[in-house]
Design brief:
Layout lengths: L6 H15 L4 H7 L4 E10 L5 E12 L5 E8 L4 H17 L5 E8 L7 H15 L8 E5 L5 H15 L20 H19 L8 E5 L3 H12 L3 E9 L4 E6 L6 H5 L10 H6 L3 E4 L10 E4 L20 E3 L8 H9 L3 E3 L1 H4 L2 H15 L5 H26 L3 H19 L4
Parallel strand pairs: 3-4, 3-5, 6-7, 6-10, 10-11, 11-12
Antiparallel strand pairs: 1-2, 2-4, 7-8, 8-9
Helix pairs in contact: 1-3, 1-14, 3-14, 4-5, 6-7, 6-12, 6-13, 12-13, 13-14
This protein binds nicotinamide-adenine-dinucleotide.
């Protein structure tokens, strides 16, 4: 029988392990190990050719004890309700670990937007909202873009929601274009957040960032901004990798005396694909895609895909690596994590390291609700404060109890949600 990976089972296993560790009471466990609420529905979409296509849509609200549910909407042909459940659960922990007053949610539609015209996509977005208009909203559940959805989709969804409810409610949804109630700083927030946790980690290790080098997997939104912030701290990025669509393979681009981020961005497509000929002209060495991981560096930032640091790849890391900041979601398998543990590498877990994005989305919602918008430095400073405080709390607990950052982050997040469930008197 073919093995199929089920992220919901993984999410539940991770939760069970921490629930055991903190001896969580049975009724709270029962509430937290599954979603509080799920909506499954059909969305009929009139096609441009006169026919009608019917798509299956979902919204999962894993937990809203700490505040309205928050999470993206994915359009994907292989979407499953179990993927949406897992992602909703992870959103609950991510919002809790950075201590923003939101719960966890996620939505999806089984569809391939590449096969839909713009008008059909608009009808799909409006149809999704029509199915859920009473169950989402600024005070209930706040969607956002995710895989194959973007700011344009969010505006159609907002318009449908406002048409149904008869008013202007920009706080209903985040990821809006800046001229339609989006926030400044969202583009940078996730990658800069990775930079902020790196700053804290190096400070804790009493290592001067100026004496360190780093390699990153990916050169898209997260990696570019993580690299920028790390270089602003004084560090030197010596290698980045990316996928090359034309060659259907990945490459690592290395420059031992330091990558010029702005120059490299100028030869990178919107999909994070670096032009390899131009890069070679600029003096970059072209190495195999996996080589980012075995560079002689102090810092590694996986910021592209899941499942990259494994039992096989982790032993390839140089003995010099001190810190791994997980920019991507789920870049490390449990076996890869074990190897890094044995080597004493400080691993900053994904749901803390990349939480700058959701933190900034929370600030978008706050600004939208009050209909007053901050300048970019103010937004980013607030993101820095939240991420830094979260890092310090997790690190303090890890030190106190002799835990790794990942376990400490889970304990803090689950305890916060459990506490809200208790204070509300749900159990
Ligand atoms: P992106 O699409 O902007 O960039 C992805 C990058 O990964 C591209 O440079 C691409 O070439 C590269 N890549 C793809 N396959 C590769 C391979 N085999 N080897 C090396 N590089 C490869 O995506 P992004 O927004 O930067 O997101 C990256 C990761 O961060 C994802 O796991 C995403 O879920 C996670 N994340 C993103 C955000 C956000 O705000 N963008 C927030 C939280 C988490």
């Amino acid at each position: 029988m073919a093995f199929s990976y089920n992220p919901y089972h993984t999410a539940q296993r991770q939760f069970d392990a921490v629930a055991d560790l903190i001896d969580l009471e049975a009724p709270i466990r029962e509430i937290l190990r599954q979603p509080m609420r799920e909506y499954h529905f059909s969305i009929p979409v009139p096609k441009d050719d006169g026919g009608v296509a019917v798509f299956r849509g979902f919204r999962v609200q894993h937990n809203d004890a700490r505040g309205p549910a928050k999470g993206g909407i994915r359009f994907h042909p292989q979407e499953t309700v179990d993927t949406v459940r897992a992602l909703a659960m992870w959103m609950t922990w991510k919002c809790a670990v950075v201590d923003i007053p939101l719960g966890g949610g996620k939505g999806g539609v089984i569809c391939d937007p590449h096969h839909l015209t713009e008008r059909e996509q608009e009808r799909l977005c409006r149809g999704w909202v029509r199915q859920l208009a009473r169950d989402v909203g600024p005070e209930l559940d706040v969607p956002a873009p995710d895989v194959m959805t973007n700011g344009g989709h969010m505006v159609w969804m907002l318009d449908e929601y406002e048409t149904i409810h008869g008013g202007r409610y920009p706080g209903f949804i985040t990821g809006k274009p800046v001229d339609m109630g989006g926030t400044l700083g969202r583009t940078e927030a996730t990658g800069f957040g990775v930079g902020y946790v790196l700053r804290e980690a190096l400070d804790e290790l009493a290592v001067n960032p100026g004496d360190t080098t780093a390699a990153l997997q990916g050169f898209g939104n997260v990696a570019q901004h993580a690299a920028q912030m790390y270089q602003e701290l004084g560090g030197t990025v010596v290698a980045v990798s990316c996928w090359h669509q034309g060659d259907k393979t990945a490459y690592t681009f290395r420059k031992r005396d330091g990558v010029d981020i702005e120059a490299l961005k100028s030869i990178t497509s919107v999909y994070g694909d670096i032009d390899k000929e131009k890069a070679q002209d600029m003096g970059y060495e072209l190495l195999p895609g996996d080589d980012w991981l075995c560079q002689e560096v102090d810092v590694l930032v996986p910021a592209a895909l899941e499942g990259q640091i494994t039992a096989t790849s982790a032993p390839e890391m140089s003995g010099r690596v001190k810190v791994v900041a997980e920019g991507a979601n789920g870049p490390t398998t449990p076996e890869g994590d074990e190897v890094m543990k044995e080597r004493g590498i400080l691993v900053i877990p994904d749901f803390l390291a990349n939480a700058g994005g959701v933190t900034c989305s929370y600030f978008e919602q706050v600004q939208s609700n009050m209909n007053y918008y901050w300048e970019k430095p103010e937004v980013l400073e607030k993101v820095d404060t939240k991420i830094t405080n979260a890092y310090r709390s997790v690190s303090a607990l890890a030190d106190k109890r002799g835990l790794r950052m990942r376990d400490a982050a889970y304990i803090i997040a689950i305890n916060r949600v459990a506490q809200a469930v208790k204070r509300r008197g749900w159990v």
